[in-house]
Amino acid sequence: MNKKFLKEVKKAKKDDIIIWNEATGELIRGQPNSRKINEAVIRLFYFIYDMKNRKFRKLKWDNLFDYIHKKCNLREVKGKLTWTCYGDLKFVKEFCNEYNLPFEKIKKRLNAAGGYCDCEVLLNSMAEIDKNEYIL
Ligand SMILES: [Zn+2]
After folding, report:
1. How far, in Å, is the centroid of ligand 1 from the Cα of 123?
2. How do the domains of the chain map onto residue ranges?
3. Which of 2, 38, 67, 96 could form a disulfide with 101 if both were Cys (CB 3.0 to 4.6 A apart)?
4. Residue 10: pLDDT over 90
5. How far does residue 22's CA lie from ligand 1's centre (Å)?
6. To 5 degrees, how large is the angle CA 70–CA 76–CA 82?
7. Ligand 1 centre and the CA of 85: distance in Å?
8. What is the whole-number distance in angstroms between the Cα of residue 99 and the centre of ligand 1?
9. Would you tell me the crossing angle of helices 103-112 and 90-99 to the nearest 10 degrees?
10. What's the CA-to-centroid distance between 111 and ligand 1, angstroms?
11. Which of 3-7, 17-21, 108-112 has the highest mean pLDDT?
């Protein structure tokens, strides 16, 4: 069980509702019919709706690596190698938003393979994850 989730369970007052979307990482606790909870329910509803209705794209890790590769844009400037990386998974997040993929889940997998920022995904994760494997 998720530690953050258990923490919320312990903090929960009588009647509190806890909404946990494992795929997006969203975890909300509040009273029934509170604005916070109602909004979280709507987001959850749309998430499920999107999952059911999106065209099921059989995306492979190769598609993600290719996207990151283009965004990082490894290039030579005045004889020196350089690339674009913001020190986080900005481009991975972009990819996930574009294809409606669960960022938190993908981030975990990339982290486990040594990818904590976009360029590390290319340097480390790419070597560990089979590019022909489906992302989901
Ligand atoms: Zn980097």
Report:
1. 9
2. 3-53, 61-128
3. 96
4. yes
5. 26
6. 65
7. 5
8. 22
9. 140
10. 12
11. 108-112
Token output for 128: 């560990």
Average pLDDT over residues 31-52: 88
Residue 61: pLDDT band by 50, 70, 90 thresholds? Answer: very high
Q: Which residues, 6 or more positions from 21, have their beta carbon under 8 angstroms from its beta carbon?
A: 27, 43, 44, 47
- Cα–ligand 1 centroid distance for 31 (angstroms): 41
Average pLDDT over residues 119-134: 96
Token pair listed for 45: 């509803």
Q: How far is the CA of 82 from the centre of ligand 1 (A)?
A: 11
d(CA 68, CA 107): 13
The candidate with the shortest Cα–Cα distance to 95, out of 53, 60, 43, is 60
For the record, the structure tokens of 109 come out as: 């997998």
Q: Kindly give the distance from the C-alpha atom of residue 116 to the centroid of ligand 1, in angstroms, as a whole number.
A: 7
